[in-house]
Write a sequence for this structure.
């Protein structure tokens, strides 16, 4: 089942205090609307009833979707810095719920699940989207890492852009690939 607890919110704009349901766990098989809210990118949005100021609670919950074989431990983006600790905690949670430390019946369900850990709303949403699109998230993550390795640091990119300006200001033809290898087809490289 999906679990929520009541949380008091103090509006940072007007100081009004109100409450909202903060998610602790999601069972997407029983609550497909919560899965859809994550996909719609508005899950756990809070709106102050007094002044209308809105913000979003950080993700901190587990997500179960047996039908799609997904189990996620979703953490706030700021906890990425300590991801080693979160990985251990997530693995322990999974083991107790559906893994080696769980009852046999739960282990049978666990055998159908792929456990993952995410940091921040975009990462959690991405896991649902990738499954929706039939993409292998491991291949996607490896592709990201490969791209990050190939990209120059931002300072190098700025330096390249400066070089680009210099080579166009004197009338010479822009050499986009040499100036900006990371984005060979980017419009900023050719104008
Ligand atoms: Zn307010």
């Amino acid at each position: 089942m999906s679990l929520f607890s009541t949380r008091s919110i103090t509006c940072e704009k007007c100081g009004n205090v109100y409450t909202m349901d903060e998610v602790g766990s999601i069972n997407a098989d029983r609550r497909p609307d919560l899965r859809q809210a994550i996909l719609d990118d508005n899950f756990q949005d809070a709106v102050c009833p007094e002044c209308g100021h809105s913000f979003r609670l950080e993700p901190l919950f587990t997500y179960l979707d047996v039908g799609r074989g997904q189990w996620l431990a979703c953490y706030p983006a700021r906890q990425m810095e300590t991801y080693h600790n979160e990985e251990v905690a997530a693995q322990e949670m999974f083991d107790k719920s559906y893994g080696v430390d769980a009852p046999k019946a739960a282990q049978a369900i666990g055998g159908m699940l792929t456990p993952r850990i995410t940091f921040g709303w975009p990462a959690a949403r991405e896991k649902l989207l990738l499954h929706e699109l039939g993409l292998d998230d491991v291949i996607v993550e490896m592709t990201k890492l490969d791209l990050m390795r190939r990209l120059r640091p931002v300072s190098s990119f700025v330096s390249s852009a400066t070089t680009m300006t210099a080579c166009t200001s004197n009338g010479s033809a822009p050499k986009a690939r040499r100036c900006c290898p990371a984005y060979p087809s980017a419009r900023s490289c050719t104008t």
In short: Residues 154-169 form the longest helix (16 residues). Residues 154-190 form one domain.
